Amino acid sequence: MESSTQSYEISLSTSRKVKGFLNALLMIVIAVVSFQYLDVSIAEIIVAIPQLVNFFIANFLPPNFSQLPTYVGPVVDTLLFAVVGTYISAVLSFVFGVLMSEQMNPNPVLRGCVRFFISFLRNIPVLVWTSLLIFVFGIGNMVGLLALTVATIGFLARSYAESINEIAGSKLEALHASGASYLQILVHGLIPEFVPAWLNWTLFSFEINIRASAILGMVGAGGLGILIQSNLNLRNFHEATTLMMILVSLVLLIEFAITYLRRKVNQ
């Protein structure tokens, strides 16, 4: 009996190794075919790396800090894009999340319509939203804020809905059974339980939006991004280096602060 069990375990282990090898081989084949289809050479990329490094050293270093005081405004703009965009998105996404939740919205037609609307928002890239909104509002802060808000709602609403389903399915049955009204269940049951998940998803989204704010600026939405793009276009590489250093420092600082806050929330 023991010998039979050992043989089975050896056979199972061998089968897993073979499957793992075949999966790895399949991934390699897919990668090779993809590179060939795109006509991209890994060798050329490797050869170009020293040229890229030399170009950066020769043109971008050292950074120019002479204009540093003038960058305070764009830094604040970039930060506030993320703050305001995330805040508005977090409020609206909670409403959409409730409407998307099977536990909180029993109407399948309304639920399906909201899900379709959120999927529509989520599947259009934020840069596309920016390009479209520029035709309406022109270049400026309004475009960056609206594009960031729309894109963030698409992400947050789905995340909130999944968290709400988990909470509603396991912790709100007692309120349903006691005859509590929908508003009572929402205010006294769902919201207190949902706050930790809300904070986690919202902080994570804010971290992403800091980076997105700079990217949006590069297509005309203001903030640090538009300064970086302008200096690159004018070949003011030393100033661009300074701006990129500021952006990286800002992102790292926000990531550190958010990681700390999320740990506190999850304790």
Provide a short characterization of the protein structure:
This protein has 267 residues and is mainly alpha-helical.
Please characterize this protein's 3D structure.
The structure is a single chain. This protein is mainly alpha-helical. It has 2 domains: 2-49; 69-266, Orthogonal Bundle (MetI-like fold). The protein contains 10 helices and no strands. Helix 5 (126-137) crosses helix 6, helix 6 (141-171) runs antiparallel to helix 8 (182-221) and helix 8 runs antiparallel to helix 10 (237-266). The longest helix has 40 residues, at 182-221. The chain is globular. The two termini are 48 Å apart.
Shape: globular
| Average predicted local confidence, pLDDT | 78
How do the SSEs run, as a string of H and E? HHHHHHHHHH
Q: What percent strand?
A: under 5%
Radius of gyration: 25 Å
Find the structural class using helix and strand composition.
Answer: mainly alpha
Please work out how many helical segments DSSP would assign: 10
Count of distinct structural domains: 2
Distance between the termini: 48 Å
Q: Please identify which CATH superfamily of the largest domain we are dealing with.
A: MetI-like
> The biggest beta sheet, please?
none
What is the helical fraction, as a range of percent? over 70%
- Give me the count of strands: 0
CATH architecture assignment name of the largest domain: Orthogonal Bundle
Q: Which keywords apply here?
A:
267 residues, mainly alpha, MetI-like fold, 2 domains, 10 helices, globular
